Structure formats: structure tokens, C-alpha cells
Amino acid sequence: MPFLGQDWRSPGWSWTKTEHGWKRIVFYGHELEDNNREIDLKELCSGNNENLFVGDVCELATTKRKKDFYNNNTKSQFVFRDKWIYVQKGSTKERHGYCTLGEALNRLDFSSAIQDLRRFNYVAKLFQLIARSQLTSLSGAAQKNYFNILEKIVRKVLEDHYNPRLVKELLQDLSSTLNNLTVHVGRCVLVGNVNIWLCRLETILKWQQQLNNLQIPKQMCDGMSFNDLPLYMQNKILYKLSDAYDIINLGQATPTLHILSENRTLWKRLCHFHFSDKQFCRNLVLTKSDNVDWKLMYFTLQKHYPMKEQYGDTLHFCKHCSILFWKDCGHPCTANDPDSCLMPISPQHFIDLFKF
To answer: pLDDT of 34-51, one tens digit each?
Structure first.
């Protein structure tokens, strides 16, 4: 089938008729092979260049040049209006092909999601799971996008001092995976030149050093502080924390908080939040007085069982439309009751959706 474009010979190029046939016009005595070069085609159109680009051809060439320059010189190379993706695992009469993890990583706008504190932990955990097992399944473009978003995550932690421990664990897992792939497994499993991956390893090391040297400045506040709150309110805040390390770190702030953080009831509720009763029976930890040491029991159970994950906001999957999306952005659902079809997706479930 012939190509029906604005210029059937080659869209975006300018041609002239000679005795030997049609010949393409060349700029400055050589062909335009470098799309990254900054050439203002509007000036070429308006100047005394014998109308090298005229009419629609000029507009098409300008659009193509801007697209090539944007894709090659910017880090945010994936821009989509829709913030959702159709998860397809096989070909049908209506749709052909399938959706990959890399495509979902490019389409779901994680760059904007990390700016939302409700979604930051979710994206960081997802990137940690990808670093552990799914890095080699990403395409070259998806890997590039992965490291671009990761750079923004590190920059946000350095600027806002938000949850550096989680990002340190992410970088540690990513560094271990890349060391194993580049040194032990070999370069055959990696997309791209091995030197690029070695440069990425150096960049990860630099990020780790920056996070290790991170100093959170002391907040100078003349108003009410956390220590000024009544004890029952401080204790209530501790009960809202679901991470044991947050409770331990908070308990190191003052002697009063240390006493509150060692409360048996606090650790008992934390155990019941993350683990089931059957898991308690298999790993019961008792003190000398035959009482349950709930703090020690928590860390014992943590070694054997996964903990319950809790996030401010997650991706959602519509079982009616098979669409994955951020709930605030919405999606074109055709169900009578869209809310009844929604299912929150954990980071691990996100990975499992794209395993074929």
C-alpha cells in the first residue's frame, strides 16, 4: 500500500527537479543527519533561502525536528495525556499484542506521583521490587525512564528529607542487583552497552554517599512542639505508626518517648496488625515470667513472614475494563457501578500483573 503523505517521495524533505530526476535539497553542502542540532527552520523559511521549506512541508519538518530534539535531549521523554493503561495479557479480535511492565512504567506518570506524599512510599517500594527481580525484563527505553525517575526520588529526599531510609534500601538492592548482573552473570542479560551500566553503578554509589551524609536541620519553632503535647496524645500518635523502626527512632528522642515506645500493649497491637494468630502460635516468644515479649516476638515474626503493607494511595485496577490507573486521575469506565469494580493494587501485585 503506498504511503499517502504530504510529500509522497519523503515527508519533511525538500526536493527539486533536475535533468536526471528529482534530487533532494541539501543544507550547507551536507545532509542533515544530526537531529540534535539546533536549526530554526522558521528562520530558513522566512529568509532568502529560495523557499527551501514551504507551506505544509515546512510545518511538518519543524514538528519532526522538535520531536527528535525533545526525545534525544530531555530526560522526561514519555508524555501521555492519559494516566491509565489497558492491561492486556493476550491477543483478541479487538486488540493485538500485550502490555509489558516497561510500557506500564512509562505510561502511569510515576514522575508526578513521587511529588505526592501519599504515593511516594508506594512508588519507592515498587521500584525496589523492580530492582530486585524485574530490571532485566525492562526495555532500554523503560530502563532509561526508570533511572530518570529514580534520580528524581533521590533529589526529593535530599531536598525534603522525606523517608531517606526507604530510598537507602532501594539503592542498596539496586546496587546489589547491578553488581551481580555486571560481574557474575555477564553483560548478555543487560540492554545496552556495559559501560553505561558501570556509569549507572557509579551514579548509584554517589547517591548513596549523598544520603549517608544527609543532615536534617533542627527545626526552630517558637510554638508548641511534640513534647508539649499531653502524654495520652503522644501515646496515641505512637499507636498510629505501623513501622517498628519509626517507633524505635522516635523513642530515642526523649526519655519520655523511650518509655512510651517500650509499652507492651503498643508492640502487641503492632504484631496483630502485621501478622495472624496462626503465625503467633508457631513463633511464640516468652519471658522468664511466662509473659509474651511482644517486641521480641515482632522481630522474630518479621524474619519469617512478610509484613502488612500500608500506603496513603495506591494504583487501582478496574476488573470490568482491565485498566490500571491512579484513582484520582480516573479512567473511561463503562460499568454501571464503577466503584464496585475497583481493586487496589499492591506493588507486588503490580509486578505479578505483567508476568506471563
So the answer is: 444 444 444 444 444 444
